[in-house]
Amino acid sequence: SNSVSVVSQRESLGFEGRMTMAVDSNALDILQQQTGDMEQKLAILVETRTKKLRDDKAKHTASLRTDKENIATLKGKIAQTTESSKHVLAVQQQREAAKAMVQSEITELGSHASELNDKKREKDATIAALLQKKNKLAETKRALSRRESDTSTRLTEGLEMYKQWLGLDFCRREDEQLQLIFTRINEADPDKKYFFTVHIDDTHNYQVTECSPRVTAVPEMLERLQQTNDFGAFVREMRLEFKKL
Fold this sequence. Notes:
alpha+beta, about 240 residues, four-stranded antiparallel sheet
């Protein structure tokens, strides 16, 4: 199950993370193999010592029956056996310490993998939010483009009508501005030109950049135009204002 967990963790990491996991996994495999070898050697040692103890005990028991003088020798061997048992215990303690270290490393790796998964989820959530924002911006851009196109169409249609009936002409300038020129306003001089220049700024609002002769009511007229978006009405109102001059 540990191998499956490591593989799953590798798949969720980037290239750099996978390299780190690969090194940690190899170190863990080597440590586990060394622990297994140690356990096998320990089992052999315990079995050997146990067999020796049984043999020694049998010999000493036989010696006690026949020769009490061997008691001193038997005590020496018992002391030697006790020392060996201490050594076995020390080895066992070392093995337990090694197992605890391996378990600690496994726990640390699991915690690291969990942290990486949390970061991945945060990254995925951020990407999803950015994509959603991008889609909204694209939709807003398309809506603005449609509005601009509709506005341009209405401008063209309205201007054609007023050109025919009201002596209105217009020209589109290189700076994306539209100049509207009126005639037939001054009865004493029908060919006299009255004009104003209009354009749509970056915020999609109408602006009048030129007006000759000057019309003081232009700001109020522009405010109404922003609200109604009725450019034809604005043109008619401008003509009326020119006639008042």
